[in-house]
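Lab channel / #folding
Pinned by the channel admin:
"Please post every new chain as: sequence first, then the structure tokens as a reply. Keep commentary short and put observations after the output so the thread stays searchable."

First post following the new format, from NK:
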Amino acid sequence: MRLLLALLAAGLAAAPAGAVADVVRERLPNGFTVLVRENPVAPVVAVSLLVRTGTRWERPENAGISNFLHAVMVKGTRKRSGAQLAEAIAALGGKLSATGEVDYSEIRASALARFWRELLRLTAELALEPGLAADEVGPEREWLLGRIQKRRDNAPARAFDELYAALYRPHPYALPVLGARDSLARIDHAALVAAYRAAYQPQRMILAVSGQVPA
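Reply from TO:
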């Protein structure tokens, strides 16, 4: 984490004060990529950690596992419960979320600019030290099943999903991001832990930082 902060500081120092900087890109020896863009317009900073995992890497039998994983991840880290994590990010005047998408998964966070170091630490904590508590899997599965049912009950959303499936089958793009009832039923705690370990590798991650950060 110290290396990451030093890299960000070095990249930001290259931008002229009061100007919107070009994107500074650095790739670490382990394959981890960092993108930094200073923007002095508003006193905020936004962080996006993109991970190369999502629906396009899934199969019918584990459809929805990327989104399921990130729903469980935001429930806490090894150091903080979900409530404590929410309190910590709120104290920075910010917000934090994690989702699985089609081509990538993302941990997204924002805060007041003066707290950019703390924001990066919380983002790193969630990415590198997620709790992945076994007792969170069941409740999150039920919550996701509820979302799936609501989407099926929504005629436009259901029509879109069915059109997407027809257009892209047999490519993984045909699979629903939320998964299906039978695939979610097969995804247990061990499967989520395995998915996390496979996805959260340095060469599969890009960290993007933008906002009013000290140069």
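NK: The chain has a mean pLDDT of 89.
TO: also worth noting, The chain has eight helices and six strands.
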